[in-house]
Design goal:
196 residues; Yope Regulator, Chain: A; five-stranded antiparallel beta sheet; 2 domains; four-stranded antiparallel beta sheet; alpha+beta; single chain
Length: 196
């Protein structure tokens, strides 16, 4: 399989990555990922990938594993920012207040997207949305990125990507909720902590 096929296979599995430049078998291709305003570039040729001087073999699916490692690193760095930690704590407080099945909370993103939550049958139900009309499908590129982050795909019940969390899963759900605007909506820091 040529390097173009290896790259296409990797970015189809990891839709958060963009191809900046195709090497075309003659040179290195460049892949890009941005999380919370931090950009990483990975150079890929027929045999290896390079990030920050570190070279790894790309055969037998190793490119996907390497790109996942880079994603995890950027995600962890984004979530360790003081603003991101404050946003996670804020979400956890909001969800503790969400005790009735009829309560709905919503955290707006400047780009028009939002995170919405409610309690249903004892579970915290979260939805990530681009803010588009409910009768139209979520755009495929965004849906792919949200699923890659850990959201469930829209289905016959929900137009938006969604997650349901038990009380002991709230911390992980808060991390996902904060990472969403930083990795899927292109924000450099969490949106203002204001309910709508």
């Amino acid at each position: 399989m040529g390097d173009d096929q290896v790259i296409l296979a990797a970015v189809s599995q990891l839709p958060r990555w963009q191809v900046l430049h195709w090497g075309g078998g003659q040179g290195n291709s460049l892949l890009r990922l941005e999380v919370a305003g931090v950009e990483e570039i990975v150079s890929v040729n027929t045999t290896s990938a390079i990030r920050s001087g570190r070279r790894v073999d790309v055969s037998n699916g190793k490119l996907v594993a390497f790109l996942e490692e880079v994603q995890s690193d950027l995600d962890a760095r984004a979530l360790s920012m003081a603003e991101a930690q404050m946003a996670q704590e804020w979400l956890l407080v909001q969800w503790q207040r969400c005790v009735d099945d009829d309560f709905v909370g919503r955290w707006e993103f400047p780009s028009g997207g939002f995170l919405r939550w409610t309690r249903t049958d004892g579970l915290l139900h979260l939805e990530a949305s681009d803010g588009g009309p409910y009768d139209q499908s979520m755009p495929e590129p965004l849906r792919g990125v949200l699923i890659d982050l850990g959201w469930q795909a829209p289905d016959h019940r929900f137009r938006n990507c969604w997650v349901e969390a038990t009380r002991d899963q709230h911390t992980g759900a808060a991390a996902l909720g904060v990472l969403t605007p930083l990795a899927a909506f292109g924000l450099a820091s969490p949106p203002p902590l204001v309910l709508s």
